[in-house]
Amino acid sequence: MLYKASNASKLDMKQAWNKFLLSGKVEEGCVRKVIAESWTRCRDHGVKYLDGYYENLLSREETERFIEERKQLIDIARPIMKTLFKCVEGSSFIVVLTNEKSVILEIMGDSDVLERTKTINFLPGASWSEECVGTNAIGTTLVINHPIQISGAEHYCSKHHFWTCSAAPIRDSLGNVIGCLDMSCLIGREHSKDLEMVVAAVRAIENQLHKEETQGQLFTAHKHLTTVLSTISEGIMSVDKDFVITHVNTALAQIVGMLPRDMIGKKVSSILGDCYHIKKVLETGRSCLEEEITIDVLKQQVHCTLKATPIKDQSMQVVGAVMTFREIKQVHQIVNKMTGTQARFYFRDIVGKSHKIQEVIRKAKVAAKSPSTVLLLGESGTGKEVLAQAIHNSSDRRDGPFIAINCAAMPRELIQSELFGYCDGAFTGAKRGGRPGKFELADGGTLLLDEIGDMPLDMQVNLLRVLQEKNVVRVGADKPISIDVRVIAATNKNLSMEVDKGVFRKDLFYRLNVVTITIPPLKERYGDIKLLVEYFLQKMSRKLGKEISEVHPQAIETFNRYHWPGNVRELENVLEYAINMTEDTIITKECLPFYFNEEEKKIEEEDEFFTLAELEEKAIEKALKKFDRNITKVAESLGIARNTLYEKMKKYKIKK
Length: 656
What we know:
Number of strands: 19
Helix content: 40-55%
CATH topology of the largest domain: Beta-Lactamase
Distance between the termini: 116 Å
Structural class: alpha/beta
Strand content: 15-25%
């Protein structure tokens, strides 16, 4: 809505103004409603109607602060104000810009008019609000939020009756008033088109302001998007419909070993070689999901997965594509985390204080600091995988995957694909897109080849090649994939004897037999059984929801006499059985599996037929085993002198 100046004569308006000041009443039909409401506000504010001179100019610092706050508005408005002034130059006009508080920020005009404005302090730093100087185009337009023209006696203060002023509010893109543009001239000048000119100038200012705001928002959005893309670990590239690279993030630049600026603007084929998948996306408009590709970069091959999505315009025409590249190593790390292929055990989790197990731990800790292949020997159930995990977690590969594979549990025809993976279409039933093998999944970490002694002879050749060349070739593929894997092998067989039998390759044995650690059977770990019982008792009681306080000494003695063919694994299972069977808070001999009682009877029956010499010989043998053949301790336990012990050992042909 535009509020143009009244058509009433100067005399009638002057009389209406005088009448309002004397009686507070408005001359109907002469005074516009918007002016009458403004006069009322001015009277209520206590504005001096004979005045109109602004006394309290803002300080220079305050004025500069307001100017700085509206710097963008001033910069945009200034050239438009100059254009507006050029249209009326020489006709005693001034053009004024204020902020939303009516404070004058910028003023330009004819010199004679500028001199006259000084008499009422109509200058930068002055507030031209209704509260300060009464009804005027600037103050009133900011109150009513509409363009208005005020002329002569329509002004509340008499010192302004010589002016005709036209003003309009300036709004930002959200509709908030941020300023006002005013054009004023001495009364008597032609002013019929002034308000329309001011409104047109304000529209030009707002359009430019909105344009710059939009550009600023776009720039901010672009910077935000660029920052987000640079923090993404996957490589990202966009191309246009002509295969020209338009954007590359930092991750992709690192993958291909080039700077983003050296890639943008070039054909994608010059960087990535064969672009079959990208070409297919641009031609068909259909996405490409997680295809495995090999990028030839700087004489090296980078194995990645590719996901490509087309970019379409409003008419659904393909205008480009966005590609996401993820190194296979990164994919495998994610898979390993999701499938839980992480080592859980540490050296602190290995229970035992016997000399033999402590020596095993010492050697394993030394091996953990080395990249060499480790061969773990020991009977089934002795804890070879636990030790392998502890070695991994103490090595510099602790943050990498730990993959374990049982060579004896895999069908012969699947061993190669399980270890080395296969590509798409390698054989009937092969998974679409192929599948990585255990070596690839273990890249950067440790691969445990459990029961290595049971691996088929023909597969041992392939394993040896991988260990030597440090790369794998998937079944059905011809390109090798580099790997960085630390191998730990484990077996319960005597590999030297297997070599002699011709069922294990000698060269593979030597490749694996770098750091060899033999884990003793449980029956040789004197003193560890009680510790293991206490450990498993606490662990199993929580698991089974029972409160078992202890194991009866007779049961412990039974455990100590038992030969434990299943080693630690058997002990754990026996305790779980006993905890389930007991109805008390203590485990007794009666809670143990039946074969323990059978074993006890067998031992008792055998003891009945021993001669004294046989018993003496057996006592010496047991003591030697119990004290790791420490002669002093054996003699003390048997209650005889060392020399006597040597004589008896010689008598029974017992080796030291």
